[in-house]
Amino acid sequence: MKIKQTIIFSIIFSFLFLYNLNAQQNENFEKNETTWSLLKSDANLIFGGVKNAYTKPFKWKKDDWLTFGAIAAGTSLLYIYDEQTSEYFVNQEERAPQMLKEIGWYYGSPQNFFMISAGIYGYGLFSKNEKFRHTGVLIISSAVATGLIQTISKNAFGRARPSQNVGSREFKFMSKESGYHSFPSGHSILSFTASHAIAKQFDNLWVKGGIYAVGLIAPVSRLWAGAHWLTDVTLGMVLSVVIVDGVDNFLTSKKNNVKEKTISWNFRAGYKTIGLVGTF
């Protein structure tokens, strides 16, 4: 088996194994639902999650705008040191473990990201496991939302990659050249979207830390390769966190609304008996 396939399937089965350990006491199998009905329901949730990601900024409140301002200020500060940090990471490339480089490349590439997300969601769909399905829908919704943003941004900004050797402040707006598609980092967005979505399903800090560590490999490997600046990967990861959290809140609220609607309350009275009965 090729190293690429080994990496991808190892990641998928590792996540599945960890999920099984985490969900042993809380499994929720929707036996009364058909696979087709679950798929249609999830498709609507994915569409709703993507829509929510794009419309949420119109509903931002003061705290949200303060967070946005802090992110913008932090990115601007990092922007000043982009060339120095890039030189440092590129100089570490020869000493970087080859295995980490390969994991970073394959984990963050679109086709392999699809394999991982499809594996998680597919397992949840066919086993009718709500926890897996929720995570799969969360990853897919977030990836679609962030993917569209990064595709538009790459072409619109046309920022030169470090490998072009023209500096971090060189832009060719609306450029179609791959050497000018540095901002933001697609590998960082995809890898951290998956890792953050999966890590949110665990309470154990050690498990969370391990998952986030895997998610950080792709961003760092892109810095080693001179494919992106520090601001490219940092803003990509921040974007992933913001969108995953927003989509997760949307999906959770939808699930809670459904559960509330499934309870039918009835008043019953009889001989020496009076009460309120809820039918689930």
Euclidean distance between termini CA atoms? 49 Å
Listing every helix as H and every strand as E from the N terminus to the C terminus, the arrangement reads HHHHHHHHHHEE
Main sheet: strands, sense, barrel: 2 strands, antiparallel
Mean pLDDT: 83
Write down how many β-strands occur, each being a DSSP E stretch of 2 or more residues. Answer: 2
SSE class: mainly alpha
Low-confidence stretches: 24-29
The total count of helices amounts to 10
Radius of gyration: 22 Å
Shape from CA axes?
globular
How much helix, percentage-wise, in residues?
55-70%
Can you give a write-up of this model?
There is one protein chain. The protein has about 280 residues and is mainly alpha-helical. It has 10 helices and 2 strands. The protein has helices at about 5-25, 35-55, 60-80, 80-90, 100-110, 110-125, 130-155, 185-200, 205-225, 230-260; strands at about 265-270, 275-280. It has a two-stranded antiparallel ribbon with strand order 1-2. Helix 2 (about 35-55) packs across helix 10 and helix 8 runs parallel beside helix 10. It is globular and about 60 Å long. The N and C termini lie far apart (about 50 Å). Mean pLDDT is about 85; it is low at about 25-30.
